[in-house]
Amino acid sequence: MRNGKKSVLVINGPNLNLLGTREPHLYGHETLKDIETAGVKQGEDLDANVEFFQSNWEGAIVDKIQEARTNGTDGIVINPGGLTHTSVALRDALLGVSIPFIELHVANIHAREEWRHHSYFSDKAKAIIVGCGAAGYEYAITHVVNKFPNKENVDV
Question: Which positions are catalytic residues (predicted)?
Fold first, then answer.
């Protein structure tokens, strides 16, 4: 919790900054900015803090996850993008901070190429949201706010 409110960190990995323009037949027409604006408003409506972070750099995402360990983040929603299928470093960071997380994918990764079916996160995620488009973010934020336990700011 931060300032008496549930705190949700939403992380978007590589290429998700291109939502709305990159392969809209797969990912839809909503931009990442649209999703962020809706998510912040949703947080206000739920009396929660919702913070968004996007990077094309794996190390920056690891740093953000580690920062969440001590700032009162109650839950993480992560759309790792292409790092889903490759990143042991992100998996280790998520496990290392002991913050429950939801794995999210805008498109259905199981209906795509075979190599996209494997995830380094699914077996440790509290929930997985796949193929719901931008609405998946709304579902994930609601779930974290309503179902995840509170974590106090520990400032280690």
Answer: 27, 105
